[in-house]
Backbone:
């Protein structure tokens, strides 16, 4: 029984009333720019520390940096939300460009601070880190110092950042415009509809096989029609990155993403190595599912298909209640936080045209709130996405007592909190299944996530690493991109696919995100890492929530290897750690196959 009706459209006026034409938003951005200009001038007098007496100047610089960063982030996040909810909002597009320029200037400011501090004599540096003012920031400050030494000169890095506004980030923004301009015409239940890419993507889990196939083919035709535009965009994004890496003397395209994720190469290799050795059970699942759907092998458009009639639809209100019920079983703080998010209109879930595809959670650091974006159509996958994004928001909530300097966590651990929230909902749902049919459907939804992280994300990683190697030799054609993607999918899916998605490279926003390179492997890391946390939570019960919050509060102040050792007592540079998590997922496959075989 639904006790309460929650808003399905988010509240953005809470921050700046009036949308992209808001005078309050205009004033806010102008104030940020004024503070930034003043800070840039002040930094002319910011010199390399010569003694511990310089601690006050460093502390002042950090406080100024924080003030500008959180206010710029607040404005930028709201503008991002405005564009996501309506891709035709031209004023928001202009504001996005303005914010991009301000971020570039802020990056240059941060670089100046890093470069100045990196020149500090070692003994003075260690004395500074032991002061009351800076000791709590030692991890981040050491990280700044190390990164600065790997960079070019201040002027060269500033030039790269400045040119990146129109020569790098603009390509990512162009991708959003191209996708927003795509409209898919489909006839559903006798009615011709014009759908956005996000709406058409949601049909991948439709119970009607013909609709799934027609939607996939219509989308594939749309990507094919504009493949040259997307290929040009992707090539120039990669070309810009590679040129910067070459100037810095970085040989591996993974150096930056590993550095951003505070992860060793050994950890990444161990994770993919463990997954590559355990593809067979998931390929077996795909073969079993395709047989249940009346096919000999798995078609791409059937990957998200429901396997039986028990895959019930949940409207938004039911989905919200379902999530809150199971969050409450984990801990009171997660449930109370999420209930507040639903009640206060933090979530944009309405299924309507002109919305951006996909889902995200963005933080408003001044207001200490978050906003969640998705297009909700009632599938169990949508419920999982909603829980996933609430997990992100809870991570930000857990960090509220922590200083801004120690809140900048990497993507891998960010995906830990989100996938942990998904698991709570998915696992509890399977345990409460009313009958075998429902259990099969819910198990299948869990396994779909394993397939996504072990196969789909692996395909993205394989494609992107190989694409970058090709790009070093020149522009990569659209046909070659299709070939690279198909090869990666065949390999990553263990040979279980009958049909592939050759234009996946064009359809997936993650390849075009300029803020974070290789927006793929951290998802798989977060999934498997959160499995270990979840296993610990099951073992310790309701008392674990406080330990979980403590772990989240450490996510931005240590490497992932140290985080795992401190909170889990595990060495994640070894395949053994990852295999334990994979085995839990294999058990889901075994249960699914046993149940479906019993049903005949």
Residues:
């Amino acid at each position: 029984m639904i006790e309460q009706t929650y808003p399905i459209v988010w509240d953005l006026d809470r921050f700046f009333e009036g949308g992209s034409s808001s005078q309050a938003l205009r004033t806010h951005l102008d104030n940020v720019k004024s503070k930034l200009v003043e800070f840039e001038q002040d930094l002319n007098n910011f010199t390399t520390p010569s003694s511990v007496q310089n601690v006050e100047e460093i502390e002042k610089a950090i406080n100024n940096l924080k003030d500008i960063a959180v206010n710029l982030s607040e404005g930028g996040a709201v503008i991002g939300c405005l564009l996501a909810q309506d891709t035709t909002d031209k004023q928001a597009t202009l504001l996005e460009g303005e914010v991009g320029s301000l971020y570039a200037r802020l990056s240059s400011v941060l670089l100046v601070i890093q470069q100045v501090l990196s020149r500090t004599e070692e003994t003075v540096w260690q004395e500074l880190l032991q002061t009351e003012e800076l000791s709590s920031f030692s991890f981040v400050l050491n990280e700044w110092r190390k990164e600065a030494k790997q960079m070019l000169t201040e002027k060269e890095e500033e030039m790269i950042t400045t040119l990146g506004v129109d020569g790098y980030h603009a390509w990512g923004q162009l991708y959003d415009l191209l996708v927003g301009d795509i409209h898919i015409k489909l006839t559903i239940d006798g009615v011709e509809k014009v759908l956005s890419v996000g709406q058409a993507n949601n049909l991948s889990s439709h119970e009607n096989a013909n609709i799934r196939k027609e939607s996939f083919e219509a989308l594939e035709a749309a990507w094919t029609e504009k493949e040259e535009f997307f290929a040009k965009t992707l090539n120039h994004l990669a070309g810009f990155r590679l040129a910067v890496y070459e100037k810095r003397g970085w040989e591996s395209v993974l150096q930056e993403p590993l550095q951003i994720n505070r992860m060793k190469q050994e950890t990444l290799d161990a994770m993919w190595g463990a997954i590559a050795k355990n593809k067979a059970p998931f390929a077996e699942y795909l073969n079993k599912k395709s047989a249940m759907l009346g096919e000999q092998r798995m078609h791409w458009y059937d990957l998200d298909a429901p396997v039986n009639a028990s895959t019930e639809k949940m409207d938004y209100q039911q989905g919200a209640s379902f999530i809150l019920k199971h969050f409450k079983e984990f801990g009171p703080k997660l449930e109370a936080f999420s209930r507040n998010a639903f009640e206060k209109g933090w979530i944009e879930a309405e299924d309507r045209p002109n919305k951006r595809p996909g889902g995200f959670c963005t933080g408003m650091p001044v207001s200490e709130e978050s906003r969640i974006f998705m297009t909700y159509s009632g599938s169990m996958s949508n419920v999982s996405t909603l829980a996933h994004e609430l997990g992100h928001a809870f991570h930000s909530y857990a960090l509220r007592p922590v200083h801004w300097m120690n809140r900048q966590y990497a993507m891998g651990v960010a995906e830990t909190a989100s996938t942990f929230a998904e698991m709570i909902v998915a696992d509890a749902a399977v345990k409460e299944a009313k009958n075998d049919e429902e259990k099969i459907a819910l198990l299948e939804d869990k396994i779909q996530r394993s397939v996504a992280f072990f196969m789909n994300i692996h395909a993205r990683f394989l494609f992107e690493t190989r694409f970058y190697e090709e790009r070093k030799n020149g522009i990569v054609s659209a046909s070659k991109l299709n070939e690279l993607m198909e090869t990666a999918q065949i390999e990553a899916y263990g040979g279980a696919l009958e049909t592939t998605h050759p234009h996946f490279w064009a359809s997936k926003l993650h390849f075009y995100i300029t803020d974070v390179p290789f927006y793929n492997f951290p998802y798989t890391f977060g999934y498997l890492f959160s499995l270990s946390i979840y296993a610990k939570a099951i073992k310790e019960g309701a008392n674990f929530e406080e330990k979980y919050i403590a772990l989240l509060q450490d996510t931005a102040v240590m490497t992932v290897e140290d985080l795992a050792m401190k909170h889990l007592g595990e060495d994640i540079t070894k395949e053994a750690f990852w295999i334990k998590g994979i085995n839990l997922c294999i058990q889901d496959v075994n249960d699914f196959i046993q149940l479906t075989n019993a049903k005949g």
